[in-house]
TrEMBL record:
A Gene Ontology BP annotation from the UniProt entry: nucleoside metabolic process
Compositional bias ranges of the Polar residues kind: 329-354
Start and end residues of each Nucleoside phosphorylase domain: 14-315
InterPro entries: NLR-like (IPR053137), Nucleoside_phosphorylase_d (IPR000845), Nucleoside_phosphorylase_sf (IPR035994)
Gene3D superfamilies attached to this UniProt entry: Nucleoside phosphorylase domain
Region Disordered, residue ranges: 323-357
Gene source species: Colletotrichum chrysophilum
Name of this protein: Phosphorylase superfamily protein
Record-linked Pfam families: PNP_UDP_1
GO MF, one annotated term: catalytic activity
Length: 366
């Protein structure tokens, strides 16, 4: 993979990664095969863009990485707008990091455990609405909802929703995860990215509030899970679905389950809603807690590295678009152009008009 030509300008970058926490950013850097800015920044940024960027290569893709100054929708929205002003050729942005997961119904097919990874199919602003004295009413009209993903992203996710595509992505993630865990040790990273033992993955009944000082006193409130006894648990499973996003940290099992049932939500996080309409994006986040009152940070490093592994595995299978080439140069190199009867200015699929020419093998349809 080392034969990818180094980018000459910001327009050569088609992929962006965005992280909200330093922990997530550190994990994302391990996904890079090569960094373009080891000897200093080469690409700059547009005026009034406050973001700081790390640039490099993941597989066959030039990738720009940004760390948000703060958590939340406002920070991610502003950073995404600035990112797009500097990197105008972006086709896909991935918001990578950690989230709170919805544990599921309890059968092994959809049983989510800590360390699994969620990918957004759509984003729901769960804290946008009106607070009445006795209830909260979420705004849910066509004018309030976030837009759907573009066709390129929908086509990508359709593959990974299939058994074949998801299985291949999970196997790729497992392979990448092992490699970048070794890389972290080799680089003497201070963060330890090993998977915590199953005994550290505890799910309580939704209505139970954490009142006890030790686990022994909570035994009657724990929910058993089949996957924790499975030797295959060490490899993250991938879930694709609706992700809830808002500035409110979800720490209620009852509220989590109610929203999940109403809207088909599989996870909660805080930045996706801000980015969603600014730039073509998907959310890829590792499950570090169950979005209830029993939150802790023990699983954050592993969840972050799992998300970075899925991101890298996904990009290794993300198909690049052909670049338009000047017809004269393609003819001199033996290229054959298909002729159409268009005439006029602008981008042409023929030989008779002014503007950029396309050879047959570079035509793509959207």
């Amino acid at each position: 993979m080392g034969d990818l030509a180094q980018p000459q300008c910001r327009e050569d970058f088609k992929i962006a990664l965005v992280c909200a926490l330093s922990l997530e950013y550190d994990a994302a850097t391990l996904a890079f095969d090569e960094l373009w800015d080891e000897n200093g920044d080469r690409f700059g940024r547009s005026q009034n863009d406050p973001n700081n960027y790390t640039t490099g290569r993941i597989g066959r893709h030039n990738v720009v990485l940004a760390l948000l100054p703060n958590m939340g929708k406002t920070s991610s929205s502003g950073a995404a707008a600035a990112l797009r002003s500097s990197y105008t050729g972006l086709k896909l942005a991935i918001l990578a990091g950690v989230c709170g997961g919805v544990p599921g119904s309890g059968d092994e097919v959809d049983e989510m455990i800590l360390g699994d990874v969620v990918i957004s199919k759509s984003v729901i602003q769960f804290d946008l609405g009106r607070q009445y004295p006795d209830k909260f009413s979420r705004k849910d009209t066509i004018h309030d909802n976030l837009g759907r993903s573009n066709l390129d992203i929908r086509s990508l996710l359709a593959v990974y929703e299939s058994d074949f595509g998801r299985g291949r992505l999970e196997r790729g993630c497992a392979d990448v995860l092992e490699k970048i865990q070794r890389k972290a040790v080799k680089e003497r990273r201070r963060t330890r990215y090993g998977r915590p033992p199953p005994s550290e993955d505890t799910l309580f009944k939704s209505a139970y509030l954490h009142l006890h000082q030790n686990w022994e006193q909570t035994g009657g409130h724990l929910v058993p899970r089949d996957r924790l006894a499975d030797s295959e648990t060490q490899s993250p499973q991938i879930f694709i679905g609706n992700v809830a996003s808002g500035d409110t940290v979800m720490k209620s099992g009852d509220r989590r389950d109610k929203l999940a049932q109403e809207h088909g939500i599989i996870a909660f996080e805080m930045e996706g809603a801000g980015m969603w309409d600014q730039i073509p994006c998907i959310i890829v986040k590792g499950v570090c807690d169950y979005a209830d009152s029993h939150k802790n940070k023990k699983w954050q490093p592993y969840a972050a590295i799992a998300a970075a592994s899925v991101t890298k595995a996904l990009l290794e299978r993300y198909i690049q678009e052909d670049k338009p080439r000047d017809l004269d140069s393609s003819s001199s190199s033996g290229g054959v152009a298909r002729q159409f009867n268009n005439t006029g200015n602008g981008t042409q699929k023929n030989n008779s008009g002014a503007g950029k020419q396309y050879v047959a093998e570079t035509m793509t349809f959207h």
